[in-house]
Hints:
Layout: H1 17-27, E1 37-40, H2 47-57, E2 60-63, H3 76-95
Parallel strand pairs: 1-2
Helix pairs in contact: 1-2
Amino acid sequence: MNGFPQAIHMTRANVSDRDGASAMIALHAMHLRQVQNVLVDGGYSGVNFQLDVASNLNATVQVAKRNELHRFEVMPQRWVVERSFRSCLVSLILTK
């Protein structure tokens, strides 16, 4: 676990990130049954996504929001989300 991606689901470009994540959670719910908290960035905030996570995984959603402009503060939760995206991107680049 430790903040690394637990499941990946690829969709077409016309599917929003939030809808793709909901589909991924529904498809991989059996493999994700130990997940208790889903850490996401601000693009996934919303009641419908929270309901999808709650109904499929019985887990909570925690949104790691960015800080105010012109102010720097280390946010460990935000760092985990960004690190996870970066590791996926590096893996994709290395496969080409």
